[in-house]
Design goal:
Layout (H helix, E strand, L loop, with lengths): L9 E3 L1 H6 L4 H5 L5 E4 H6 L3 H13 L3 E4 L7 H17 L8 H12 L4 E3 L3 H9 L7 E3 L1 H11 L3 H14 L6 H9 L8 H23 L7 H14 L10 E3 L9 E3 L8 H6 L13
Helix pairs in contact: 5-6, 8-9
Length: about 290
């Protein structure tokens, strides 16, 4: 029995369908209103996935195949031109490589669909920084894994959900950290992209505080600063020093003496709910 479902219409991209090949019936059981763009179906090369979709559509009326939307008045046409250009500046549609993402995003924008399920990190980044598509939220496989976890009826189900999360998640973004993060928002999905970006942002803020302080000297480069911060975090677990929300104390510049950027007291209720573990592996995610 599904305890928690996504009620809003969700537009699925090709990557999600491919990654859940053979399990689409279970995946779709988590949603009340499933949309798939025809272009996405055309680019899903494996015949078996198309057959799986066809069989599901025969028994599940909540699955809808959509096509391009006709653009209306002059105001909407002007917006379409801007949206179209922004997409073409980001995605390669000349050789059809990204045509599915292009069509899906345009449909989401002009079809008033606010949830897109995608495992394409280019789409994640685009939606996050976009001028015209930033009102669309992406549900990732990590979000889906957590949704499966919430609906797990036993330990085995929840373990499988964690395994799925770990298969597609980044090493530095542990499931338990994501679980704590999303519980603060009453388990409202999606949250993974926000969670990932929040951790990367806070790591960079921590690093840049020290980098700026030492920037006038020639004896300390950014790699050395980063190494010292990571080392201090590893040697001081369960302290402010291993927390991504810690910041430089300018009155006493020491990697092992930090201020909390949120002004929390160590291990009080808010601190415990907010802090997230530190990992050296996040270094590879700085962009």
């Amino acid at each position: 029995m599904i305890l928690k479902k996504i009620e809003s219409p969700v537009l699925f991209d090709a990557n999600i369908l491919i990654n859940f090949k053979g399990q689409l019936k279970f995946l779709f059981s988590l949603f009340d209103n499933i949309l798939v763009h025809k272009q996405v179906i055309d680019e899903v090369l494996e015949k078996s996935i198309k057959i799986e979709l066809d069989l599901l559509m025969e028994e599940n009326k909540s699955i809808t195949i959509v096509e391009d939307i006709s653009i209306g008045d002059e105001v909407e046409q002007a917006l379409y031109i801007k949206c179209d250009q922004e997409l073409k500046n980001t995605f390669n549609i000349k050789d059809s490589k990204d045509l599915g993402e292009y069509k899906t995003l345009l449909y989401a924008k002009f079809g008033d669909v606010r949830l897109l399920s995608s495992q394409d990190t280019t789409v994640w980044k685009f939606v996050t920084v976009s001028s015209y598509f930033n009102d669309i939220d992406c549900i990732t496989i990590q979000d889906l894994s957590y949704l499966i976890y919430l609906n797990g009826s036993n330990r085995r189900d929840r373990k499988l959900a964690k395994l799925l999360y770990n298969k597609f998640g980044r090493d530095e973004h542990h499931f338990e950290d994501f679980k704590r993060y999303i519980e603060r928002y009453n388990n409202e999905l999606p949250k993974y992209i926000e969670f990932e970006n929040n951790r990367i942002y806070n790591y960079n803020e921590l690093l840049n505080g020290y980098a700026k302080f030492y920037s006038s000297g020639d004896f300390y480069d950014i790699e050395e600063i980063e190494w010292d911060i990571v080392t201090a975090a590893r040697q001081n677990p369960n302290t402010c020093i291993d927390c991504l929300y810690s910041r430089i104390t300018k009155t006493n510049v020491d990697f092992q003496q930090r201020n909390c950027s949120l002004d929390l007291e160590l291990f009080d209720e808010n601190c415990t709910a907010t802090r997230e573990s530190f990992s050296k592996k996040i270094r590879s995610r700085i962009e």
